[in-house]
Design a protein that fits this description.
Blueprint (H helix, E strand, L loop, with lengths): L6 E3 L14 H13 L5 E3 L11 H15 L4 E4 L5 H13 L4 E4 L3 H4 L6 H14 L4 E5 L1 H4 L5 H10 L2 E6 L4 H11 L4 E4 L5 H6 L4 E3 L20 H20 L5 H9 L16 H13 L15
């Protein structure tokens, strides 16, 4: 297993114009901004990247751009879908774009009914590994897939494909702790839920993925937690929790994240159907949050949902 550099691995947005066109130059600009903030690698075409809204040509193109801008940093490309055929097609498009690795989560249909047969879950990973043998970032997202990947299922996935890392977005502290204890020496654990950043890092997690601390400058200060005063630690945790609240519960992911990036002067653009921009009320709440914590908010006109 390759050890990833300790640090932040943002789940990036995919910028679209008001007409719904992919904005390649804007995407490259956002990637360069992340790198300037200290990011160690990327997840593209994930949930923040509106994976479901990208066709194969676009997926290939954004992979090519990300790999060029990343300059040797690992880039994992979201490659999940309901059917095995479509998931493999998406993984193939990513590979054709030069992807470093694939981000895979279990097929949504299986999880929609609050049950996840191990054979179905592991079988999908195995089929994709055989078709497109790239390093894998396993994405455990029970808040979006309804059920969490169990420790037993994760161990079985490790047996059938080249798992390099885990994006763990489980909000159960015991689950997170057990993952770190069981797998810290086998894969790179990247903690997603802000509430568990410090616990995960203390138990051997290699980094943080998906939390936009870069709104406020260098996101890697989360790794200076041990040297902070108690007040500084509390403030950092308050900030992380408030980021979670605004990004996940204002509008539908990733509407708030895109709006926040637009507010600080980055060309994140619009969301694609079925995701709508924030309402005026939600936009005001997001702006107030950014101002409260000292983000460099501009006077640019917001992108809002129809009133």
């Amino acid at each position: 297993m390759k050890r990833l550099e300790i640090g932040c691995y943002p789940a990036t947005v995919t910028p679209f114009s008001e007409q719904g066109d992919f904005m390649a130059d804007a995407f490259a600009e956002i990637l360069r901004w992340h790198i300037a903030c200290g990011s160690k690698g990327f997840l593209i075409a994930g949930d923040n990247g509106e994976n479901w809204a990208l066709d194969l040509k676009e997926l290939r193109e954004i992979t090519e751009i990300a790999m060029r801008e990343a300059d040797g940093r690992p880039v994992y490309v979201g490659a999940w879908a309901i059917t095995e055929r479509e998931a493999i097609e998406r993984a193939t498009a990513a590979a054709e774009g030069g992807a470093y690795g694939l981000c895979i989560k279990p097929q949504p249909y299986v999880y929609a009914f609050a049950k996840a047969p191990t054979a179905d879950v592991v079988g999908r990973f195995e089929a994709m590994a055989k078709a497109v043998p790239l390093p894998v970032l396993v994405y455990n997202s029970p808040n979006r897939n309804n059920v969490s990947i169990t420790h037993e299922q994760l161990a079985a996935i490790l047996d059938v494909c080249q798992v390099e890392a885990l994006k763990d977005n489980n909000y159960d502290l015991q689950h997170q702790i057990e993952n770190c204890l069981l797998f810290h020496d086998k894969i790179n654990i990247l903690v997603s839920a802000a509430l568990f950043h410090t616990t995960g890092l203390q138990l051997g997690a290699r980094g943080v993925i998906g939390s936009p601390l870069e709104y406020f400058g260098n996101p890697n200060r989360i790794f200076e937690f041990e040297s902070m005063s108690e007040d500084e630690r509390r403030d950092l945790m308050r900030l992380s929790l408030e980021i979670k609240q605004v990004n996940s519960y204002l509008g539908t992911v990733p509407a708030a994240y895109k709006a926040g990036l637009n507010m600080i002067g980055l060309p994140a653009g619009y969301t694609r159907d079925p995701i709508k921009p924030l309402t005026a009320d939600d936009e005001a709440k997001l702006r107030a949050f950014l101002v409260k914590w000292g983000a460099p908010v501009t006077d640019a006109a917001p992108i809002r949902a129809a009133e």
